[in-house]
Design goal:
The protein is an alpha/beta fold. The chain has two domains: about 1-140 and about 320-355, Alpha-Beta Complex (Quinone Oxidoreductase, Chain A, domain 1); about 160-295, Rossmann fold. It has helices at about 40-45, 105, 155-170, 185-195, 205-215, 230-235, 250-260, 280-285, 305-315, 335-345; strands at about 1-10, 10-15, 25-35, 65, 70-80, 90-95, 95-100, 120, 130-135, 140, 175-180, 200-205, 220, 240-245, 260-270, 290-295, 325-330, 350-355. Strands 3, 5, 6, 9, 10, 17 and 18 form a seven-stranded mixed sheet that branches. Strands 13-12-11-14-15-16 form a six-stranded parallel sheet, with helices on both faces. Strand 11 (about 175-180), helix 4 (about 185-195) and strand 12 (about 200-205) form a beta-alpha-beta unit. The relative contact order is 0.15. It binds zinc ion (2 copies). One zinc ion binds next to helix 2. It comes from Haladaptatus paucihalophilus DX253. Pfam families: ADH_N (PF08240), ADH_zinc_N (PF00107). InterPro entries: ADH-like_C (IPR013149), ADH-like_N (IPR013154), ADH_Zn_CS (IPR002328), GroES-like_sf (IPR011032), NAD(P)-bd_dom_sf (IPR036291). This is (R,R)-butanediol dehydrogenase / meso-butanediol dehydrogenase / diacetyl reductase.
């Protein structure tokens, strides 16, 4: 079958790969839709970050070249002999988290923080930029009747946003600032709105992304290339927002997020970083601000896991997929019309769906 595999920086190839066989507790999923993620772009432009290159990954046992794609939905096309909870034809979203099951975090249920964790589509184990993929049955999460198959490819990025908002502790009536409104920023905006945020400020240089932020529920749009975002937020609030989210991954937005948060407020860092940053720690200390990080989500179907919550929130209309999706392309075009298009600062793309 055809799959897009990472061989090195700026070297992703669509090529023929071996199909994996289905083990007793596995299912094969025919991929319907797989989104291109910001972390895929990092791997393409500046990787490897998550991709194992020298040593094989501790859980998957694989190393580059690996098939990419971790935000995907599809239809179960083959089930292993011992699988009871799924049937052929079921529509599913894939929980891509790989974990060891033995470290402290895995033992206490926070397997997304596993010491040797990784992701299908970044760390081995197949990926969604392929015609089909074999996963453990527990990683295929049913979408149910009310979530369209294509929207299943957004369960992963929306779960990142939901996990970030839940970790921030915001509550009804809070003011919020979001720095960066790519797909994860838009997910944060929608989840903050669902959590009862009163006013949501968004700082984002690309006009098309500001429009999508407005469609996602942001009230106050700032172009940081034209306006001082921190000054604008401080003068429009009572000394800063209750909660800020850093979703751009650059030093300027990291510090702007801290400076636009009120004393006693919380800054949640969602980005994955390519570089270190210089920050004045006194901004945290003197205002008793809380600086926290957030990674991924819990990817199971249960009501205490973000995947389960997001599927319910898509089904009942709390979350709106439409502002996130800007294009649909074929697997063969993934480099030129996908990766290169998203890296082009002048493009209006936000989330591109690949249809293998
Ligand atoms: Zn992602
Ligand atoms: Zn572990």
């Amino acid at each position: 079958m055809q799959a897009a595999r990472w061989h090195g920086q700026h070297d992703i190839r669509v090529e023929e790969t071996e199909e994996t066989s289905v083990g007793a507790t596995d299912v094969r999923v025919a991929v319907d839709t797989c989104g291109i993620c910001g972390s895929d772009l990092h791997e393409y432009a500046a990787g490897p970050i998550f991709i194992p290159e020298g040593e094989p990954h501790a859980v998957s046992g694989e190393k580059a070249p690996i098939t990419m794609g971790h935000e995907f939905s599809g239809v179960v096309s083959e089930i292993g002999a011992d699988v009871e909870d799924l049937s052929e034809g079921d529509a599913v979203a894939i929980n891509p988290i790989l974990y060891c099951g033995e470290c402290r975090q895995c033992r206490q249920g926070t397997y997304h923080l596993c010491d040797s964790g990784g992701f299908i589509g970044l760390s081995g184990g197949g990926g969604g930029f392929a015609e089909n993929v074999v996963v453990s049955a527990e990683q295929a999460v049913p979408l149910g009747e009310d979530v369209p198959l294509e929207h299943g490819a957004l369960v992963e990025p929306l779960s990142v946003g939901l996990h970030a908002v839940r970790r921030s502790g915001i509550s009804a009536g809070d003011t919020v600032a979001v720095f960066g409104s790519g797909p994860i920023g838009l997910s944060v905006i929608q989840c903050a709105r669902a959590a009862g945020a009163r006013r949501i400020f968004v700082s984002e240089p690309r006009a098309a992304r500001r429009d999508r932020a407005a469609d996602s529920g942001a009230d106050h749009l700032i172009d940081p290339t034209e306006v001082d975002a921190v000054g604008e937020i401080l003068s429009s609030t009572d000394g800063g927002v209750d909660a800020a989210f850093e979703v751009a991954g650059i030093e300027a937005t990291f510090n702007a997020a801290l400076e636009s948060t009120r004393p006693g407020g919380t800054v949640t860092v969602v980005s994955i970083w390519e570089e270190t940053v210089n920050m004045p720690p006194n901004t945290v200390v003197l205002g008793e601000r809380t600086l926290t990080g957030t990674l991924a989500y819990l990817g199971g179907p249960r009501s205490n896991e973000e995947y389960g919550m997001v599927i319910d929130m898509l089904a009942d209309g709390t979350l709106d997929p439409d502002p996130l999706v800007t294009d649909r392309i074929e697997l063969d075009d993934i480099v030129d019309e996908g990766f290169e298009s998203l890296l082009d600062e002048s493009s209006d793309q936000v989330k591109i769906f690949v249809k293998p």
